[in-house]
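chain below, 528 aa
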Amino acid sequence: MANHTDADPVLSPLTQDAISLAQLVSAHGLSHPNLSALVIDNKTISYGDLIKKTRQLASVLKKNNIQRLGILASKSLEAYLGVLAAHWLGCAYVPLNPRYPLSRLKKIIESAQLDGYIVDALRKPMVENFVLTSSATPFKKITLEDIQAEDTISLAASKVEATDLAYIIFTSGSSGEPKGVPISFGNLGSFIKAVSARYPLTAKDRVSQFSTLSFDVSVFDMGLAFGAGAALYVVPDDTQMAPAKFIYENQLSVWLSVPSVINNMARLKILRPNGFPTLKYSLFTGEALTLAQAQAWAVAAPASQLENLYGPTEVTIDCLGQIYEPNENFYRDQVAIGKPFAKMIAALIDVNEKFLPPGQKGQLVIAGPQVAEGYWHDNNLSAQKFKKLTHPDWGMQGWFLTGDYCYQDSHAVFHYINRLDSQAKILGNRVELEEIEFYFRAITECNEVAACIVTVGDNPEIVVVTNFSKLDFSALVAQLAERLPKYMLPARMLYRDALIYNTNGKLDRTALAEWVKSIESSTGESAC
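prediction:
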């Protein structure tokens, strides 16, 4: 945890190497306390009030010696206060997605070595009869009542060091254990400075908050809005996938979400020409953005700059981007993932980890100040994915190997093709197909099982293929739901005498997905 004093002056966050979200809020709140900072359920919280409540929670955390805070809340005031109070003290927060099964939450809590968590009113029932414990220390629960009872103090936002942890995001892991990605304030600072310059906003702007805290894109929204003194508009869960009315009525100027939202709105016939006249920036990330999706959104928001963004969690949210132009050269009918952000570099390597020139296809690797140091308490996986490689132009760099197979055209623009491993994305959430298989085998004791992604219309779905026919799919999904988030549950299950393997003896997921498509288009086979 960073040190601070009550007498510390207000920092100029965007000139710092390391930046916390609390510093951004503090800078604007102390100079313009009446500006709108956060809008949740039609209730507006000013920067001044947000600072007051954040200080109250920070005082509670300090009194309880909480060094790493879990946030068992989503899109509520408690959730955002948890993020800001942790950063106010210069310590890290860890999102605990309330939709995750309790068994998964326990694993995250123990792995992250949390010593406290904040819970909102909606999530209180899920912990009343279940004692969440940490392997390190007693696990302190904090509620809004604890915050309200705290006296207002003049505790200043902490200075943070580049190596201090800002947050840890836990993603799907192939071993059945959630995989932690620790992001430092130095990583975060580089990202916030890059996007603040890339998308210059003012205090009059209104930025969407589509993502939950467990999806690191939520930090993008907060950093962009708070960095400019703009207002963050939290999208309610019940309108998340059909937000046309929300965008229009709140006169949003920035929209950031996964592209799947476009498909859903088009299907519901609520994506109308010039339906979003106030949008200045329309940003999509987390999944491939198709040409059809981009065209449909461009008609709805003709005055907006439409951009496709790319970035693994390990590289601090997003690190490449491409502005959509109707006359550009689309590769495989997808908008390119573009070129790197400021101070970031990207390249392709072959199977021998040798760098490839433009015009080639290979694994995308990324270097620069946004790249994390490695995985949380997993040296073996870190050694596989974070490597020192010597580039002919940039010399020795620390590179993150994304596992994404890409193409770089003659203009140095990168285009996404597919994954090299079994990882996929559903609604922007990272999914390790091997993790689904791990729990499937654990429940059924059936070893011949494979999960694959099949696109239905424009929407990806998980289909499990197994050679064991005597399974109750509904019961199996119910058991998987105790171990996996909802977005990782299979939509269907198919029976096959034997799975498909390539000449190297490895499971051929591409061929298996094609087989699923072929039999589902016929009348001879059926899915459970």
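Residues 2-11, 523-527 have pLDDT under 50 and may be disordered. The CA atoms of residues 138 and 425 lie 35 Å apart.
thats it, cya
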